[in-house]
Amino acid sequence: MKYKILASLIGLTALYLLFWPVPIEPVAWDAPQNAGLVDPFEPNDRLRKARLIDLGEHEGPEDVAADRNGMIYTV
Length: 75
Prior knowledge:
The structure is a single chain. This protein is of the alpha+beta class. The chain has a domain at 51-75. The protein contains one helix and two strands, in the order H-E-E. The protein has a two-stranded antiparallel ribbon with strand order 1-2. Strand 1 (64-66) and strand 2 (72-74) form a beta hairpin. The two termini are 49 Å apart. The mean pLDDT is 88.
């Protein structure tokens, strides 16, 4: 049994080395400059108007979705 596992590992390693020199040329990626907290990332207070929903004895939903009319659905 040990011989089969060792032979399989050696075979897989040999297969890997056969395909090792891949035809991909890596290219460095330069990240863009950080613009800071602008546009969608700027601070806002929109959540201050949110109201809590009493769940009673339940722990909470597994998932929450809102439709176009502002209705909230939970699962």
